[in-house]
Design goal:
heterodimer, A: alpha+beta, OB fold (Dihydrolipoamide Acetyltransferase, E2P), Ribosomal Protein S8, Chain: A, domain 1, 3 domains, 6-stranded antiparallel beta sheet, globular, B: alpha+beta, Ribosomal Protein S5, domain 2, 4-stranded antiparallel beta sheet, 29% helix
Chain lengths: 259, 293
């Protein structure tokens, strides 16, 4: 991970020193991969299209602009929380964000689904899914099963619980492999340390699903208060841009109020 | 025109389940409002009200027109409500949705028909010239409870508004610019506020104030009570929905009265603060048209 993260504005000139080059000249050079927010203008110009932090990863030879926005643009292999809006003959039509074109979710792309055993989802139910196809000019496609292994890997219909809206940047921070060190988000761990039992699913389309964990008797999500506290902690951390120390204070305060 | 976004089944079920446990999603009490904020513009008669994430802007304006022939001694007072596509893509210009019509009607009933503004004082020359006062309500952001926020914004804007001073000498009507004479406030009789209760549960047994957008989507009925700080009820609107016990409704009006008193005190305080900010003192204060001549 690059140590410095320079701020870029749309149309800025990116100095060549920031553009990663292959570290080992003997190895065959990977092509440079551009992520969101960057545009290649042939022959050799790379121009940012949004304002944000320029992030470069030399060992993968890739770069992108990290920015916070409200509009979700589907990208392949994103994990999203989708709402089923209706069912067609072969597909469910699911919405990733309101007022945008629906994504299609094939009836058979659930774990172990056949024509007869596929899950019957009424309009309005939630699924945790992965984006498989995202094209500028076509409706996105999503799936709830890994097409390579046939396993769900945690994807599938979400029962009970509650969905909270968060910003896209915060969702990405939550989904980072080391969200504590890199994303500076510790709020979920802190809530767990306070003895709250819950499970979450984070969608890159700016949604978090939170559910109270089932207790010993198997009562699903018995405690609505826990879910509310987790949701509020997440939303406040997001909107007020709290640091780790402030997150700790917030969690203490919310848990005290709850008890 | 896209359809309005709908909450998912999980959200609907959870909101209801949490309410059964007396919990709201933002941790408020059932009869607690979200933080209310009010800012006045540089001009007279501009009020910007935020209630949580709901934001409403009201602007009052005045012009001299001819009065209606059947009411030669009255001025004209109008409230225009607009829900623009900026609020939500489901709203369209020039095609009022049900929400918009309801807000207009309720504001009309609350502020205009309750006689909050003395329209007779707007008459300049009987049958020929009168003031036409118009309030434009713009909803900038919609997170539920538009009616209460809009009503508060309208009342705040009208009480903050100053119309140009006029004089009548020998059949000649003169309208003074603010530089010549300090503008004068409207003749305001009482300040009504809308308090909206939302009902949940099979028989509407759970009642709560200041519903958010999500709660509004789930509720089984709502009741808007308009009243001033003296407890004079201007109107009660319970438009369809599940029937509610009369005793419960009485309890609702009692709580509504205390909220109306809070609103009234809050508005008085904000108006006083604004007056203090504008008060230049000295000669300008002496020149005010409100002084005795």
């Amino acid at each position: 991970m690059a140590t410095e993260r320079p701020l870029v504005l749309p149309g800025d000139v990116i100095p060549p020193s920031l553009i990663p080059t292959s570290a080992n000249p003997n190895k065959k050079q990977q092509p440079l991969r551009l992520g969101p927010g960057l545009r290649h203008i042939p022959p050799s110009d790379i121009v940012p299209t949004v304002a944000g932090q320029l992030i470069t990863v030399p060992h993968k030879n890739s770069m992108w602009v990290e920015y916070n926005s409200s509009r979700y643009t589907p990208t392949p292999s994103d994990l999203v929380i989708a709402t089923i809006s209706r069912s067609g003959p072969d597909f469910y039509y699911a919405s990733l964000s309101p007022y945008t074109a629906n994504a299609t979710l094939p009836h058979l792309s659930f774990e172990g689904a056949t024509k007869k055993t596929r899950p019957q989802l009424p309009p309005g139910s939630l699924v945790y899914a992965r984006v498989t196809l995202a094209n500028k000019h076509m409706d996105p496609e999503i799936e709830c099963v890994s097409s390579a292994t046939g396993k769900a890997d945690g994807l599938g219909p979400l029962k009970d619980g509650m969905v909270f809206d968060i910003s896209l940047g915060f969702a990405r921070r939550l989904l980072m492999a080391r969200s504590k060190e890199e994303g500076k988000v510790e709020v979920l761990e802190l809530l767990g340390e306070e003895g709250l039992a819950f499970e979450t699913a984070v969608g890159r389309n700016g949604k978090v699903w939170v559910s109270g964990a089932s207790d010993a008797k198997g009562n699903e999500g018995v405690n609505a208060k826990t879910v509310v506290v987790v949701g509020r902690a997440l939303q406040e951390t997001d909107t007020k841009r709290l640091g780790v120390e402030q997150q700790r204070k917030l969690v203490k305060k919310l848990v005290r109020e709850m008890r | 025109m896209p359809r309005e976004a709908e909450p998912s089944l999980n959200e609907r079920e959870f909101v209801l389940k949490a309410l059964q446990e007396n919990t709201r999603l933002d941790g408020r009490e059932l009869d607690q409002y979200r933080p209310l904020e009010l800012t006045f513009g540089d001009q007279y008669g501009v009020a910007d009200v935020t209630l949580g994430k709901t934001r409403v802007l009201a602007k009052a304006s005045a012009e001299v027109t001819v009065p209606y022939t059947d009411r030669p001694l009255d001025g004209i007072f109008n409230i225009a409500t607009e829900l623009s596509p900026m609020t939500s893509p489901a709203f369209e210009v020039n095609r009022p949705t049900e929400t918009e019509v309801l807000i207009s009607r309720l504001l009309e009933k609350t502020v205009r028909r309750s006689g909050a503004l003395d329209t007779e004082s707007l008459c300049l020359v009987a049958g020929q010239k009168c003031w036409s006062i118009r309030v434009d309500v713009h909803v900038l952001s919609h997170d539920g409870n538009l009616i209460d926020a809009a009503c508060f914004a309208v009342v705040a804007a009208l009480r903050h508004f100053r119309k140009p001073d006029t004089s009548m000498e020998g059949g000649v009507l003169t309208v003074y610019t603010p530089a010549e004479r300090e503008p004068v406030p409207l003749s305001w009789l009482h300040s009504p506020f809308c308090i909206t209760w939302s009902f949940f549960g099979e028989e509407g047994e759970i009642a709560l104030l200041d519903a958010t957008w999500l709660e509004e989507q789930v509720r089984v009925g709502s009741c808007t009570i308009s009243l001033n700080k003296h407890g004079e009820i201007c109107q009660i609107a319970k438009l369809g929905g599940t029937p509610v016990e009369a005793v419960a409704l009485l309890q609702c009006t009692n709580v509504a009265l205390s909220r109306a008193k809070d609103f009234s005190a809050f508005l008085d305080r904000k108006l006083a603060e604004d007056a203090k900010r504008r008060d230049k003192g000295g000669l300008l204060a002496e020149l005010s048209a409100e002084n005795d001549r």
